[in-house]
Amino acid sequence: MTQTQTPQLRPLGPALGTEALGIDLSKPLDAGTFAWIQAAFAEHPVLVFRDQDLGARELAAFGRRFGVPRPHALTKYRHAECPEVSWLTNVEETGKIDWYGVKRATDWHTDSTYEDTLPLLAMLHAKEVPSEKGGTMFADMRAAYDALPEAQKQRLSGLTGLHGRTDGPVGERLYGAEKGKTDKTYDEVPWPAVTRHPVTGRSILFVNPMHTHGFVGMKREEAWPLIEELADHATQERFVYYHRWRVGDVLIWDERATMHRGAGDYKPDERRIMLRTIVYPN
Length: 282
Prior knowledge:
Number of helices: 7
Order of helices and strands: EEHEHEEHEEHHEHEEEEHEEEE
Shape: globular
Oligomer: single chain
Radius of gyration: 18 Å
């Protein structure tokens, strides 16, 4: 693939999903091309680069253009030669089905909101995909906020969410006691329920049902129904993009402006293998 002089954007869905044309990520990106990517990504928080072929180190190098890639909390899936990259896979090293890998991340969430520092973005690079389906879904939390009733916006402006690893409403349902092994213990972290995008200034609904398990000063009996109400609102079809993976896709998404989930709609005996990295501020 040759790099064109002028990259272009092509919409993939009415809500989210934009393809960046004319960029080969296996080649060094000059300052002008990377500035174009950054500007496009600020406005289009799910950005796809097709027909790429990167190794773990190359994916991490692309991540380092934005910030600092960090090892994933789940130690089992870290790449042996490049720990800041992990595997998103349904296949064990033995070749058997990895059932934790099958169900992993198949309900709505924003990554790592239980960390002391919030990530900027994450990347997935498709290496093997099922013959049909097996997609990833993204919800636009900017548009979801904009569509809230004014009274709800006022209420949320004064709320601080409490975040843990998988102890929100859907985290409890999806994982129960099976949380996956990590190399440290994660404590509760507070984040405002509404935040602003650092580049565009747009307001963002920052509540997710995997990691948000409460609000400061609110009892669980009131907090959980509110979290689920907001999740239902944000994941209406009008706010959601379903990405149909092709081998070679590199997809980056803004961890502030979106929620996502694995659709969980493929036959688990078909291999689904991707490289993944998550990028934090410098």
